[in-house]
Design brief:
The complex is a heterodimer. Chain A is mainly alpha-helical. Chain A is built from ten helices and two strands. Chain A is globular and about 60 Å long. Classes of the chains: A mainly alpha, B alpha/beta.
Chain lengths: 321, 263
């Protein structure tokens, strides 16, 4: 156990992370109080979805809090499970060919492998395994079965799913492998994970709230009729402000860098959201499933992260490693 | 059923069926409260996979599992060997002898001389289409009657075979004979979506996919059949059709349904 988790459990180096989750706790308490107060103030209106949503947030925050605080590598195990659930949800939405059964089993096998590379801190393999090796392997395995009807559709949708739900999301896990930095404040990989997750998720919330309050002009009505220009701009600005405020504690970014990263997370989060909306619209469902009460499916919660995670990782990697 | 057999069946549900169905696959049940927990009762489910029965077993409280018995084809499951042991002792199937087998006069009630068409797959289902049977042949549903008389919860797959994934075949009428014999027993229709994708005919490793389960309102011979087999089967077919519509319709399904309407 100790050989696997060097530095022991609850390492002291990530002290700011413990305070950060304390802050999340305060935010969640506020959210719960507000949703309860709304229900009391206006009993006629139905706040079930809001309350379910807050309750689910409690669960998500608790699970990530325990995994990250216990040990940075906890994020790797957790993200492997998240990728498994996300890919399973994606696959459940698709109409797959019966002949692809064995191919899909191989695709599932790639999930533990990808996270094994992450665990091993093998960057070269982590970064090409799915885009190159799996990309070449799965069509080969499909050819061995021999069914050519719907071949391209099947190979394409399968690889798109692997790229978004496994490759993209595994970047979150790889963040914890980045070596500690010892600037004015010590920095660990777990803090980058926290920074990315918090900003991406708050960006979703901020865009939603700004859109509800002052949204007038639809930004992309064909794909997602509820998204407005006001929501997008308000959300991106809020996220940028937060990115700038939190950067000194959790990242090595300079002021300019933190503002640019904030803009990047805000905009990329929006794009991830609408791309997944387009996929759901294509399949003909509103929510990907009902696994997370009040949110929909796990893909509905991860959509923004499929874009922000790899982008944030590579910006950080390029600028400071 | 001996105490050992009850224990084996609960252990199978707890150690195999539940982990596979809840962790590997993941289920989402709509109206679980409609499942009958006390027999005699009949659960009629669609059939796409060997996993169907594991999924059904995982829905019941462990203490009830030994009372849940699926009717299954004797010629497939009772050939001997490990499959037979699994089917009989772990899953607890009630063997149905398709096509009927010659046996001594059994005095089976309901005048159910079984396989009118010996040698054929008995097109009209596990049921006894021929009411003029001479009593020399054993009623294939004999085991089902006994299970229901014991107060069991009988699981029936009225389609007969597993068929193509996520598509329903015409229902066979054996279930109507059971319902007529137990006119007050609730017949609960249950639709499962996703298992045909997870482990279709011919594969033996379950692919992880989420499974949606829709439990319908119970019907019974006394309340819904007007003492007419065709009416009972029509009601059951309609219940299944509406449950199937509630299952997440994929675009292909939608196209299929449109095509069928146009045909």
């Amino acid at each position: 156990m100790n050989a696997w988790f060097a530095d022991g459990l609850f390492p002291a180096a990530q002290l700011p992370l413990y305070y950060a989750f304390g802050g999340v706790l305060v935010l969640l308490i506020i959210a719960s109080v507000v949703s309860l107060a709304l229900k009391r103030a206006r009993p006629a209106k139905n706040y079930t979805e809001l309350r379910q949503r807050v309750r689910t947030w409690w669960w998500i925050a608790a699970i990530f809090g325990v995994a990250l605080c216990l040990h940075p590598k906890g994020a790797i195990i957790l993200m492997a499970l998240v990728s498994f659930l996300a890919f399973k949800e994606y696959l459940s939405l698709l109409t797959t060919r019966r002949t692809d059964h064995v191919v899909l089993l191989w695709a599932y096998l790639a999930i533990p492998l990808q996270y094994w590379w992450v665990w091993q801190n093998w960057y070269g393999m982590f970064i090409i395994f799915i885009p190159v090796y799996l990309f070449l392997f799965l069509p080969m395995r499909m050819v061995m079965v021999g069914d050519t009807r719907g071949f391209l559709q099947s190979a394409g949708t399968l690889h798109w799913g692997m790229m978004t739900t496994v490759f993209s999301l595994s970047h979150i896990a790889f963040l914890v492998n980045l070596p500690d930095l010892h600037g004015p404040r010590p920095l660990t990989g777990g803090m980058y994970v926290f920074y990315l997750l918090l900003l991406t998720q708050l960006n979703d919330v901020a865009q939603y709230i700004w859109g509800k309050c002052i949204g007038r002009h639809k930004v992309i009505p064909k794909v997602s009729p509820n998204k407005t220009v006001e929501g997008l701009v308000g959300g991106v600005l809020t996220t940028t402000l937060l990115a700038w405020l939190l950067a000194p504690w959790f990242t090595p970014f300079t002021t300019l860098e933190s503002v640019l990263v904030g803009l990047l997370i805000g905009v990329a989060g929006f794009i991830g959201d609408v791309v997944m909306s387009a996929v759901k619209r294509d399949i003909g469902v509103k929510d990907a499933s009902s696994m997370l009460p009040g949110h929909g499916g796990i893909l509905d919660r991860l959509d923004s992260l499929t874009y922000t995670a790899p982008l944030f990782f590579h910006v950080l990697y390029f600028l400071h490693y | 059923m001996t105490r050992w057999q009850r224990f084996l069946r609960m252990a199978f549900a707890a150690l195999v069926a539940r982990p596979v169905v809840r962790l590997w696959l993941g289920v989402n049940v709509r109206h679980q409260e409609r499942l009958p927990l006390r027999g005699p009762a009949i659960v009629a489910a669609n059939h796409n996979s060997h996993l169907d029965i594991c999924t059904l077993l995982s829905l019941f409280p462990l203490a009830r599992v030994p009372d849940v018995q699926p009717a299954a084809a004797a010629d497939y499951f009772m050939k001997g060997g490990p499959l037979t042991w699994i089917a009989r002792d772990l899953v607890g199937i009630v063997p149905v002898i398709r096509g009927g087998v010659r046996a001594g006069p059994s005095g089976a009630g309901a005048g159910a001389g079984a396989g009118a068409v010996k040698g054929h797959g008995n097109d009209n289902g596990s049921g006894s289409g021929n009411r003029n049977g001479n009593g020399e042949r054993r009623d294939p549903l004999e085991g089902c009657y006994e299970a229901l008389e014991r107060g069991g919860i009988l699981v029936i797959f009225p389609e007969g075979t597993r068929g193509e994934p996520e598509q329903m075949q015409a229902l066979k009428s054996g279930i109507a004979h059971l319902a007529r014999r137990f006119p007050d027993a609730p017949v609960v229709p249950l639709y499962m979506h996703g298992l045909g994708k997870s482990m279709p005919k011919g594969s033996f490793v379950p692919l992880p996919v989420f499974v949606d389960i829709f439990v319908g309102r119970a019907l019974s011979w006394r309340a819904d059949a007007q003492d007419d087999k065709a009416a009972f089967m029509q009601t059951l077919t309609d219940r299944f059709a509406s449950l199937r519509l509630k299952a997440r319709p994929t675009r292909d399904d939608a196209h299929d349904d449109v095509d069928q309407e146009n045909a």
